[in-house]
Design brief:
Layout (H helix, E strand, L loop, with lengths): L2 E4 L2 E14 H5 L4 H7 L7 E12 L4 E4 L9 H6 L9 H7 L9 E3 L5 H4 L3 E4 L2 E4 L5 E5 H9 L14 H5 L3 E4 L3 E4 L2 E5 L8 E7 L2 E5 L22 H18 L2 E3 L9 E6 L2 E6 L5
Parallel strand pairs: 4-5, 5-8, 8-9, 13-14
Antiparallel strand pairs: 1-2, 2-3, 3-4, 6-7, 10-11, 11-12, 12-13, 14-15, 15-16
The structure holds zinc ion.
């Protein structure tokens, strides 16, 4: 998987797997005649999507952003997404990228949907255990509270074994405000997809990396009005997206998307008054 040097940081893209998900759910009110030009669907209307995680090595800290789908889905759900029957541990993908998973000392969950925190824990006979034993985990308290409301609209997206054992063991910090989790690495609330989802930026020597997570799940979603049907507040998503994409384009940031199967890193540019994602491939 690709890695880039940015300022004094090294950022590595790590991917647990590719899964297939309904195209209509990904693009909401956008007609299929439009989205299918950018993302062709299979015979069941599914698109290939990635569980994208990122590792920021600051020199002092090794920070993992989101942890993929994990090992808690039953065989039927896995098959429906064309996932292999046996889940691939995220630590394996991290080791394959040349990073020792035991060095990870901070894990950030942008939010607690299963496909962003599934690799937090590993199921064992004795219950769910931390997948990264040396790490302190972070997410927003409001997100965790929402997960426990079990609202019919989105309760299916939350699997408590991904986070409650960590909260109970004092290994997960539920934060109520934006936080600089390590020097230059900022967690900022970015509401819309969920009310408490966080975008993560890592800034070093004037260069900025931004993990946009489900605010912009794929490169096609840089169109501000292309909002997934999952988003709980689509109007808010559009406003939040405009704010972050404008900052990304002005600041010449290197951005990353939660589920794009092809583009690990991208610049956001404005052409003819429209945002566009341009692949960024400065391999080092
Ligand atoms: Zn989500």
């Amino acid at each position: 998987m690709p890695a880039i040097e940015l300022g004094g940081f090294r950022i590595t893209s790590v991917r647990e797997d590719i899964y297939w998900w309904d195209g209509g759910a990904m693009f909401g009110v956008v007609p299929k005649t439009l989205w299918s030009r950018l993302a062709p669907a299979d015979e069941q209307n599914r698109l290939p999507l990635a569980f994208n995680s990122y590792i920021v090595e600051t020199g002092e800290h090794t920070i993992l952003l989101d942890t993929g789908g994990g090992d808690k889905l039953d065989a039927r759900r896995r098959e429906r997404m064309k996932l292999p029957p046996e889940p691939r541990p995220l630590a394996e993908a991290i080791a394959a990228a040349g990073i020792d998973p035991e060095l990870i000392d901070i894990v950030v969950n942008s939010h607690l949907h299963w496909d962003h925190c599934g690799g937090n824990t590993i199921l064992t006979d004795g219950g769910a255990r931390p997948a990264f034993p040396a790490a302190v985990y972070y997410t927003r308290r409001g997100e965790w509270e929402h997960a426990h409301r079990r609202h019919p609209r989105d309760s299916i997206a939350y699997i408590d074994a991904n986070y409650d054992p960590l909260v109970d063991a004092g290994r997960m910090r539920l934060i109520g405000e934006d936080l600089e989790v390590a020097p230059g690495v900022q967690l900022s609330v970015a509401p819309g997809h969920t009310r408490d989802m966080m975008v993560i930026t890592a800034a070093s020597n004037g260069a900025t990396f931004c993990f946009l997570t489900d605010l912009v799940p794929t490169a096609a979603h840089v169109m501000p009005t292309w909002v997934a049907a999952f988003d709980l507040d689509p109007i808010q998503s559009i406003d939040t997206k405009l704010t972050w994409l404008t900052a990304a384009a002005r600041g010449d940031w290197v951005c990353a998307f939660a589920h794009d199967p092809a583009m690990a890193f991208a610049r956001v540019v404005v052409r003819e008054n429209k945002f566009e994602a341009v692949p960024y491939n400065r391999m080092k």
